[in-house]
Amino acid sequence: MKRQIAAGALGQIDQFLSLSRDPAPPTKEYMAKSRGLLVDSAIHDLDIARFFVGEVEEVICWGSIRFCEYAAEVGDVDTATTLLKFKNGAQGVVQNCRRAAYGYDVMTEVSGEHGKFVVQAESKTPVYHFRKGGWERDYYHFFMDRFGQAFRAELVAFFETLSREQALSPDSTDALESLRIGVAATRSLREGRPVKIAEVGAEREREC
Fold this sequence. Notes:
By secondary structure, the protein is α+β, with helices and mostly antiparallel strands. 38% of the residues lie in helices and 27% in strands. It has a seven-stranded mixed sheet with strand order 6-5-1-4-3-2-9. Strands 7-8 form a two-stranded antiparallel ribbon.
């Protein structure tokens, strides 16, 4: 998908959509150390946004506590929606939630001038049960189940790249930039205003 987008398959990219929903909230102890939903969970969607569309210029985020009673005690939320303004003019929406009754839910969509790409988990096994009154299929319960094969492929690619002495991708810059967006989104949530990504970098430089 990345290669096709880079080759111009979509033409000009207009919109980006990504969502991540966990089956249930983590423990209170984990949540207290996680730095919040946006840095803990949404950061993966923000990383994908940069990967497919480009650098993010500004974010605005809304969050709330819908069901996890102890989220407030640790200064977190369980549900959030973040709007992204990309430097190239494209727009993005990232949705995150710590509850999905049907199991782990992830989806990414990139749309543009010539169409769109969608990445979405299919059923865990290629079995559909059709019966009187409807049909059903199984699902992935959590990310370790959903991405098991991907994790193995990442390790193989990582060590192969090292053995060839090639540049890693993603690298530390990608990690830091995704973190900056997550920090900016967290600030937007807490301060109730749009936040430019440059604000986060400028403050870091002053601290150094």
